[in-house]
């Protein structure tokens, strides 16, 4: 029995962790190992992480049923599984399913769930990493996890009523029900492991690949997905500079992949396509994790990372036409810092069109984000992000210029406003952030615009695990949307964008099921989206104000809008141009 057994089970369900079995049970399930943390997305696009559920003291156990489309022994067990859920859910037992069939895509799972009334999460294990760790090779097997010990304490069939091409009117042995009763009662489970009939799952064969995996398979993936940040001077906490470094960090690398924390790309791959997609594929994840599980062997061949240093130009977008140095900022060793605002007059004595603007932080250890806007010099110096958007920076952002034929208008007599947010590092630091501006030689055909969506009227109740809000922006003229950006703080759980067309049809544009405040991604659409006048852009979100959210500053507080990360925000932006009309001479 693999150590991931417990983890997968709980990630399925809504919560986990509570009283486990007594000491008398230890011998009965000594062979069942603990499960390492992992995360999967279910058939409805919802994110589930095992450790999150195990932190919930109200949940005593989790049942994970191995599902597979088309398997009669799965379809016929759904009614009984629902009856067991009805009986035990209020006692702290959660129910979910796992699908590791390579032939079952998400849309297939949605169709199967609708056809057979499956109303519990079906976690899709596309890389088969969880199934392999759980030693799962057949469907219709039920696993029961004690969330206090994080161990699989039972695995087997629901009962003995069904087998291959055989059915009895009634069951003689109710294996799963008896195991749940024993867990809840603190008693030993008599038969913790029973063979279960089910349809065979096709698992990819990995034998014989590990000897050449590092040089031929693993290092190229790390080079493409990881080394850009995990290099000397990069934002990653360590450098993947050679085999020895990678092997030393291999267990941590595996954990980050299993929990979908790294690489830091949080968009649901089933919704939308994005030009800056940096997510790891199921096949890549499988290659790296299976190599780690095999002991991270060196194998033959040269080390592709030994002499590799990713190109780190001073300016990602090229040498700017104008560079603005901000005044040096002193950052203390500890404490929570208020936002800082710096106002600098436009360095140009004429109207200009900006083709790109890149923020270059001087000290990435303490710069959390920078937002640059422009406004009239006569405007009141407000401490917010009002004005015309110019550029921004946060960990995970990808500097990019305006689309061809577009630009940002910066009039003469305007000033630039810099919003600076710093976090402490444990020692006193300094920062000199710079802004590089690239000018256009000609007036562009279109003005490139950024619009903010702000929904500030909310109060998140204490201990609420998923408090949701929504905001609707009406589109009053034809536009082309280029990018979307979600923003919340530490309690942010998920956010998605959809477009309601004038005919009432709603189209999903972006879903971020596992929002991470540490990575402020902007999601650039692979192709600009044509949006007709009369459409509505709908943004929905949820915050997690429960104690199970380890990032939560204080689950006992009612939380409203605020600049600091211990407050919250419902903030999103989209970039666009007007789809019709003559040349634009300003962004207003």
What is the C-alpha radius of gyration, as a whole number of Å? 27 Å
> Termini separation (Å)?
63 Å
Shape: globular
Q: Please give the CATH architecture of the largest domain.
A: 3-Layer(aba) Sandwich
Task: Report helical residue fraction.
Answer: 10-25%
Strand content: 25-35%
What characterizes the major β-sheet?
Answer: 7 strands, mixed
Contiguous uncertain segments of 5+ residues: 1-31, 584-588
Provide the spatial order of strands within the biggest beta sheet.
2-1-5-4-3-6-7
Number of contiguous helices: 11
CATH structural fold name of the largest domain: Glutaredoxin
Structural class comes to alpha+beta
Q: CATH superfamily name of the largest domain?
A: Glutaredoxin
Give the domain tally: 4
**What is the residue-averaged pLDDT?**
89
The count of DSSP E runs of length 2 or more, i.e. the number of strands, is 28
Q: Give the C-level CATH assignment of the largest domain.
A: Alpha Beta
Q: What this model shows, in words?
A:
The chain is of the alpha+beta class. It has four domains: 5-185, Glutaredoxin (3-Layer(aba) Sandwich), CATH 3.40.30; 210-293, no CATH class; 322-444, Jelly Rolls (Sandwich); 449-578, Jelly Rolls (Sandwich). Helices cover 16% and strands 28% of the residues. The strands form seven sheets. A seven-stranded mixed β-sheet has the order 2-1-5-4-3-6-7, sandwiched between helices. The chain has a five-stranded mixed β-sheet with strand order 10-19-13-16-20, with no helix packed on it. A hairpin with a 4-residue loop joins strand 6 (142-146) and strand 7.
């Amino acid at each position: 029995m693999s150590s991931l057994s417990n983890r997968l089970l709980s990630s399925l369900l809504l919560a986990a962790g509570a009283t486990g079995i007594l000491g008398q049970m230890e011998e009965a399930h000594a062979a069942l190992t603990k499960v390492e943390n992992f995360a999967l997305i279910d058939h409805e696009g919802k994110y589930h992480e095992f450790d999150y559920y195990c932190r919930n003291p109200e949940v005593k156990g989790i049942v994970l049923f191995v599902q597979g489309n088309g398997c009669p022994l799965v379809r016929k067990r759904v009614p009984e599984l629902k009856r067991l859920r009805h009986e035990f859910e209020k006692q702290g037992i959660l129910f979910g399913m796992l699908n590791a069939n390579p032939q079952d895509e998400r849309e297939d799972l949605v169709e199967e769930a609708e056809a057979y009334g499956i109303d519990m999460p079906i976690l899709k294990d596309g890389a088969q990493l969880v199934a392999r760790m759980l030693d799962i090779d057949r469907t219709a097997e039920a696993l029961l996890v004690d969330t206090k010990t994080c161990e699989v304490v039972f695995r087997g069939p629901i009962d003995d009523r069904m087998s291959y091409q055989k059915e009895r009117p009634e069951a003689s042995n109710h294996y799963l029900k008896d195991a749940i009763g024993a867990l809840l009662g603190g008693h030993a489970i008599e038969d913790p492991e029973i063979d279960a009939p089910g349809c065979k799952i096709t698992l990819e064969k990995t034998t014989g690949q590990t000897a050449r995996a590092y040089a031929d398979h693993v290092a190229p993936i790390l080079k493409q997905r990881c080394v850009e940040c995990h290099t000397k001077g990069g934002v990653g906490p360590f450098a993947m500079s050679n085999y020895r470094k990678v092997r030393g960090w291999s267990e941590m690398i595996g954990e980050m992949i299993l929990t979908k924390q790294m690489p830091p790309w949080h968009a649901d791959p089933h919704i939308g396509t994005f030009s800056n997609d940096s997510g790891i594929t199921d096949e890549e994840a499988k290659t790296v994790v299976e190599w780690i599980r095999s002991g991270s062997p060196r194998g033959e061949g040269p080390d592709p990372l030994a002499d590799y240093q990713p190109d780190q130009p001073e300016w990602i977008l090229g040498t700017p036409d104008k560079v603005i140095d901000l005044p040096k900022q002193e950052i203390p060793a500890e404490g929570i810092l208020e936002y800082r605002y710096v106002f600098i007059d436009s360095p140009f004595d004429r109207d200009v069109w900006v083709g790109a603007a890149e923020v270059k932080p001087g000290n990435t250890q303490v710069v959390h984000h920078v937002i640059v806007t422009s406004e009239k010099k006569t405007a009141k110096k407000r401490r917010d992000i009002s004005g015309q958007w110019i550029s921004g920076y946060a960990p995970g952002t990808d500097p990019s210029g305006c689309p061809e034929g577009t630009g940002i208008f910066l009039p003469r007599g305007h000033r630039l406003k810099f919003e600076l947010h710093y976090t402490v590092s444990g020692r006193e630091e300094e920062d000199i952030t710079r802004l590089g501006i690239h000018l256009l030689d000609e007036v562009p055909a279109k003005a490139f615009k950024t619009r903010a969506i702000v929904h500030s009227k909310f109060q998140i109740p204490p201990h609420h695990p998923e408090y949701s809000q929504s905001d609707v922006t009406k589109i009053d003229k034809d536009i082309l949307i280029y990018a979307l950006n979600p923003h919340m703080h530490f309690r942010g759980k998920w956010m998605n964008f959809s477009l309601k067309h004038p005919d009432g049809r709603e189209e999903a544009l972006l879903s971020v099921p596992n929002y991470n405040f540490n990575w402020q991604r902007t999601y650039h659409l692979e192709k600009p989206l044509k949006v007709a006048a009369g459409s509505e852009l709908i943004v929905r979100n949820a915050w997690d104000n429960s104690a199970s959210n380890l990032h939560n500053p204080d689950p006992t507080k009612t939380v409203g809008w605020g600049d600091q990360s211990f407050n919250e925000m419902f903030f999103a932006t989209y970039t666009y141009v007007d789809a019709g009309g003559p040349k634009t001479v300003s962004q207003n």
